[in-house]
Specification:
Blueprint: E1 5-9, H1 12-24, E2 34-40, H2 46-53, E3 61-64, H3 74-86, E4 89-97, H4 109-119, E5 122-126, E6 151-154, E7 167-171, H5 177-182, H6 215-249, E8 254-256, E9 264-269, H7 283-288, H8 290-301, E10 307-311, E11 314-321, H9 329-343
Parallel strand pairs: 2-3, 2-4, 4-5, 5-6
Antiparallel strand pairs: 1-7, 6-7, 8-9, 9-11, 10-11
């Protein structure tokens, strides 16, 4: 982001809390006025936790509808803001997502930014998962509009596979907002008469005090891999995700939840006993029980481990996140073969 301030932080939860805190800072709110923030119904749970930690209460978070692909609906965001204002609330922040946890959805940031601009709201983008896509010339269009955000959360320890933990909070603000939010001016730690530029002391800008130098992990990796190396890592992940999808389409018993736009590949494994029985009244109930059984079998065999979850009205399905830079097509083939082997008697 142009003219942004970057500061490393811990995992996604504190980053979300800090973004909320920066938005709250400087807003004068009467005791009878409710404060409000809006987030997609598919947003990360840290938004709710952040509102609770800050004393706003989880009821202050208004859930905005998402479309069938899990992307925030800007028209409903506009509606939620109008409803909140009509009720006497004071909306102050919208949290959009670039790369949702399950479906890997990217919210339409340009349209959301337009809504925020019209209403004078802080736009935070949770790009913890999908932010690294900006390093790819091929796929960075997924984050179009992110340059209009007031704050962005980014976790290099996710898609880029930097060492845990490595997270960053990026701000458009250049007025030293972080220090105004968090600064306690502890003279026994942050002396102002040091022989060097005290702006280098970032410790008073954050919630934590003692900290690891997490940004060093990103710096070292970037120096070792270079921008081209990191871009290749992103593009390879997308290519392997596409390979997985195409191989599934060639095999009986694999049903995609939807065509992925990111590296999250969501699917059901339909065992032999359920194939061709989609019209059966108990089909979805029985299908939802397949993933937990297969997960137990693969873990006990020690062959692999894949996450599963329900999502909205959809029953349990598998979610393969193709992000490990060491993965190959042979690994993808093994995954599919192993699912077929483990589920052949179901």
């Amino acid at each position: 982001m142009a003219d942004s301030e970057a500061l490393s932080s811990h995992a996604g939860d504190p980053v979300a809390v800090e973004a909320l805190l920066q938005a709250v800072f400087g807003i004068v709110v009467g005791e009878a006025i409710q404060k409000g923030t809006s987030a997609s119904e598919k947003c990360h749970y840290s938004i709710q936790k952040g509102a609770a930690f800050l004393g706003l209460g989880t009821d202050s978070v208004r859930v905005v509808k998402a479309d069938e692909r899990g992307r925030m609906v800007p028209e409903d965001l506009e509606r939620q803001i109008s409803m909140a204002e009509a009720e006497g609330a004071v909306p102050f922040l919208v949290s959009a997502t670039s790369g949702t946890t399950v479906l890997g959805a990217f919210d339409p940031l340009e349209a959301i930014a337009d809504v925020c601009q019209r209403h004078g709201l802080w736009l935070h983008v949770d790009a913890a998962w999908g932010g690294s896509v900006l390093l790819s010339q091929t796929h960075r269009h997924l984050l179009d509009g992110i340059q209009r955000a007031d704050s962005v959360a980014w976790n290099p320890h996710k898609l880029l596979a930097a060492g845990l933990q490595c997270s960053a909070l990026l701000l458009q603000d250049t007025s030293n907002l972080l220090k105004r939010c968090h600064g306690a001016q502890a003279s026994y730690l942050f002396q102002q008469d040091k022989f060097y530029d005290v702006e280098l002391d970032t410790g008073d800008k954050v919630v934590q005090c003692g900290r690891r130098v997490d940004c060093l992990k990103l710096w070292l990796m970037w120096k070792a891999q270079g921008s081209q190396g990191l871009e290749l890592r992103i593009d390879q992940a997308f290519a392997l995700a596409r390979y997985l999808v195409e191989e599934m389409k060639k095999r009986e018993g694999f049903e995609l939840v939807m065509e992925p736009e990111f590296v999250n590949v969501c699917f059901w494994f339909v065992p032999p006993s359920l194939r061709g029985k989609q019209d059966s009244p108990d089909y979805h109930k029985r299908l939802s029980k397949v993933a937990p059984v297969l997960k137990e079998r693969m873990v006990k065999e020690g062959s692999m481990m894949i996450g599963y979850q329900p999502h909205g009205t959809r029953g349990n399905f598998f979610r393969v996140v193709v992000a490990n830079p060491a993965l190959t097509c042979a690994d993808i083939d093994f995954l599919l073969n192993e699912l077929e082997r483990l589920g052949q008697d179901l």
